[in-house]
Amino acid sequence: MALPCNNSLEWYCVRSQPKHEHIGAARLRQLDSVEVFLPRIRFKRATQRGAAWATEALFPGYLFARFDLSHSLRAVQSASGVQGVLHFGLRWATIPDSVIQEIRGAIGGDAIRVIPDAFQPGETVVITEGAMRGLSAVVTRAMPGSERVAVLMEFLGQQTTMEISSRLLVRAGEERVLQGF
Questions:
Q1: Which of 12, 27, 35, 177 could form an SS bridge with 66, CB 3.0 to 4.6 Å?
Q2: Is 157 left (phi over 0), alpha (psi -120 to 50) or beta?
Q3: pTM score, whole prediction
Q4: Residue 93 DSSP SS3
Q5: C-alpha to C-alpha distance for 141 and 60, rounded to whole angstroms
Q6: Phi, psi of 62 (to 5 degrees)
């Protein structure tokens, strides 16, 4: 919801409870005098059941809210999922409109940026399932029509090329395997 231009309205960084950014944003959106912006990313992540889509806040633990500090601070801070508004001593940290607009431009209109799962030659990937789970490989060729990828990997002391389903791969660095599920 767009709020009318008012000099007392500023963007603030709101700290959420861990993994509750979406809950805090939903509760703040229920307040008439608050505009909320929660930039998120959607990407594939390794799980024990293979690669799965995940959506997370671009800035984990934080979201942005535009409101009049003197009128809405208490309601914002007491919203479910919110821990507080970022401040340094007695100074409340404001965010310029230009910064919010730049982030919105980079994320897109729906506030969710999808990180494509198509692999490119030269990318380092990690296998998420099967006997080779956890092994790293380098993509040599993507075959989008068949959803398969040719990878080069070190196996038994030799470099081996193999084709594997792209659903069983994640980019190196994104292989946070969920424990206990």
A1: 35
A2: left
A3: 0.64
A4: coil
A5: 34
A6: -140, 155
Q: Alpha-carbon dihedral of residues 54, 59, 60, 66, nearest 10 degrees?
A: -110
What is the DSSP pairing of strand 112-114 with strand 124-127? unpaired
From the list 68, 49, 58, the residue with the least C-alpha distance to 128 is: 49
Residue 35's closest CA among 4, 80, 62?
A: 4
User: What are the pLDDT digits (tens) for 27-64?
Assistant: 999 999 999 999 998 877 767 776 678 888 989 999 99
- Please answer whether residues 153 and 169 qualify as being in contact, where contact means their C-beta atoms are separated by less than 8 angstroms: no
- On whether the CB atoms of residues 35 and 3 are closer than 8 A, the answer is yes
The C-alpha atoms of residue 29 and residue 23 are separated, in whole angstroms, by 10
Domains of the chain: 9-114 (3.30.70.940), 124-171 (2.30.30.30)
Give the residues across from 124 on adjacent strands. 138
Both structure tokens of 11: 């963007």
Alpha-carbon dihedral angle through residues 40, 45, 50, 52, given to the nearest 10 degrees: 10
